[in-house]
Amino acid sequence: xxxxxxxxxxxxxxxxxxxxxxxxxxxxxxxxxxxxxxxxxxxxxxxxxxxxxxxxxxxxxxxxxxxxxxxxxxxxxxxxxxxxxxxxxxxxxxxxxxxxxxxxxxxxxxxxxxxxxxxxxxxxxxxxxxxxxxxxxxxxxxxxxxxxxxxxxxxxxxxxxxxxxxxxxxxxxxxxxxxxxxxxxxxxxxxxxxxxxxxxxxx
Amino acid sequence: xxxxxxxxxxxxxxxxxxxxxxxxxxxxxxxxxxxxxxxxxxxxxxxxxxxxxxxxxxxxxxxxxxxxxxxxxxxxxxxxxxxxxxxxxxxxxxxxxxxxxxxxxxxxxxxxxxxxxxxxxxxxxxxxxxxxxxxxxxxxxxxxxxxxxxxxxxxxxxxxxxxxxxxxxxxxxxxxxxxxxxxxxxxxxxxxxxxxxxxxxxx
Amino acid sequence: xxxxxxxxxxxxxxxxxxxxxxxxxxxxxxxxxxxxxxxxxxxxxxxxxxxxxxxxxxxxxxxxxxxxxxxxxxxxxxxxxxxxxxxxxxxxxxxxxxxxxxxxxxxxxxxxxxxxxxxxxxxxxxxxxxxxxxxxxxxxxxxxxxxxxxxxxxxxxxxxxxxxxxxxxxxxxxxxxxxxxxxxxxxxxxxxxxxxxxxxxxx
Amino acid sequence: xxxxxxxxxxxxxxxxxxxxxxxxxxxxxxxxxxxxxxxxxxxxxxxxxxxxxxxxxxxxxxxxxxxxxxxxxxxxxxxxxxxxxxxxxxxxxxxxxxxxxxxxxxxxxxxxxxxxxxxxxxxxxxxxxxxxxxxxxxxxxxxxxxxxxxxxxxxxxxxxxxxxxxxxxxxxxxxxxxxxxxxxxxxxxxxxxxxxxxxxxxx
Lengths: 203, 203, 203, 203
Fold this sequence. Notes:
disordered N terminus; mainly alpha; 0% strand; homotetramer
């Protein structure tokens, strides 16, 4: 373990906050301006898949930022493993604008199924990265004294099923691309609920 | 209410500052470089709608940042509702580059009316988000002891009419797209004036 | 003057740092990837105007950040005028990627003259914004006690001639676009020199 | 040496963190969305060079951020030379998205060799900038008291060979573009290893 790295928790957060803020803002660049030679009103309405993909990806990245932030409020020590796993997690986050644009372009086409699978599968991978990071934090005792058992327990429960939920969205995409998109929207709202509500008291 | 989240005011501000800074800087990417096969001088002049849209959106986002910042100077506690409402507000801010580009491309076309309505309507929605956030802050007693009644009163008065002013700009767009654009410019300057000037002393 | 705004110096700097960092990084997006159907080596070499424009704009924005930063180290109070003038200055900074791309595309064309005038004129305007901001800081007594007279004097001398130097670059562009570009490069290096070296002791 | 600049270490880091975070996030914009008139699945698979280039550049910039960060944890004083050299280093970092996009577009073409040389050569230059910055820090005694000799020694050893390693990757690119890309991936992982492991105790 690295005494130097241990001081770096604040820095990792600041850098991560920057990456989250940029990734969430770049999403808008993927919406294409309607050309001037078609009626603008209907053209703006026809862009609904872009708005929908923008909305879901914005909420998902936003809620992932809130969760990333909650995790790091509990973490008091950092080491090289955390630094590396956090970089992997950010790799997943910065990738999101690409499947978002693919979904927006293809959800109304015959390729909707592939686009929706690709979109949900991206979140499966990110949810796995979140899980691995959290388990390494637990295994290597990186939590601060302020981490209440109730909170820790709740996060473990909420995250454990994250990859499974997004896997369900991926499988649903095979039968119903739009159904899969609706599940992704619901999951963004689900993960916005603070983890402590998922704690079940042992009598 | 969440003791953990209560410490997070500084973080929400830092993340929000990042999103505002990126959204305001991305605006320039929407101005298209003139091709090399037309005279450059006239081509640069013909881009005036892009410069105008860039100017107004820059000032509007900049002034919204100043206002967001003033609000959070007063707020001392955060909770999950604030976190969610702030995310909705940022959703509105990051959307701005899109209607800005639509306005720039279409204001000199027959589609000017639709473009100007779309542009102003975006700010109606953002102004509503600002209002809701401020009212939740008041209703849930999240203000710090440093919040002078005069300032709070002024903000309430200034914000109450925000959505109405932008609604007027939206309606004007039906008859005069450029008139609507001028109102948006005036509103950016209006909201730059500190709220305390809108306080009316009760005798 | 605004007691609240007075606390905001740190925030203005953080927001400004974000805008500078994003504007300087967006410059690279303006360099176009060579298509796959032409020999890549010569195509990469033919992009020298893009590299040159990227280099000069990067250095100029970088040095403007250093200067912005030096100014705010001296400023201890903020008011609404400073907030507004700083927003205008950032407006100029975020605009830079556009004339940079215009210069890169047109410097080898018959439109080189117009492109070089447009590029240098942008910096004339930014230099004027820097001057106005500095003079308002001086006139309204916003400097902290740590501001040595020598430093203040040096900045005033260095900035006074800033708009003139860039005006010279703009005029030279009429006769020699590339000569004008060389002056811009020299000016970036000139403004990197700390202002205190421009202080002349009065005997 | 500049007393004012000496206080600026934190600021340089914050600005640099911003540039690193933006450069690493912009990489995704270079991956092109498949058009709607070709089968989406195979089209997404054919984009493997884009994913590979994204992955390597993301890891390389991420690890360079970690190293930049480690360096500045040791540096306690700043001067104008450090400010300038750091700006040059950031110039290299912000340039990375361009050779990344060139590599992604050309690695499957007859121009693969040129693209791979260009990509690796960019990292040779950045590695040289890192070396120069570190040697100036050592030569001008800018390290803080917390800098253990072991750490300093390890960094010197690890960095000394950085440009050479990337030069090898550049030369390998002449014979095997993909082999060169593999070396770049290995080097990102190599530089993620903390420098102190490269310290050899003198008996």
